[in-house]
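Sorry, any thoughts here?
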Amino acid sequence: MRTILTFLLVLAASMSSVAAQGKVFLSTKEALALAFPGCEIERVKYVLDAAKKKRATELAGHKPRRSMVYAYEARKAGKLVGTAYFDRHRVRSKQELVMVVVGPDSSVRRLEVLAFEEPVDYLPRGSFYAQLIGRALDEKLSTKRDIVGVSGATLTVNATVQAVRRVLAAHMVLHPAQRPRPSEPPVGERRTVRAAQR
């Protein structure tokens, strides 16, 4: 009887542990389809040389994670409607993968959390991610300025804001002709995000 009870307790603890772990929400293909319905999408490889890396560092406030940048450029009827970037980064001890869609005006058009390897309790509510939509890269894009953090998910918030700044900086360096507009989120507009609702 004691053996059975011990087994059940271990099983329950294991199941609880698995449930608390992170998960995959979307594949890259699914995320692109959500972001760009009816569009032709081209995967383009860019290389940040020393000068571009330096400029991207100045803009983002920290160094790019790598020299190679893969951009997914979406066009409808030949017109560029947006560019998606995938950024994988560490939150606490494990990884998160996000997709940031940048519009032709160099502002964030959409944000999706594709995978989150940390326990999902560390994912902020959707209202946090909504703050990032419509933002351009400037000093306001910071938890010390306009972006309100989330208690209990500070590391995720910081990692996400850094990822968005990193993506916007790379985009601006690669596409200097696409001038960013002032960083003001669209009034009343809310984009779909993948986040745990606690």
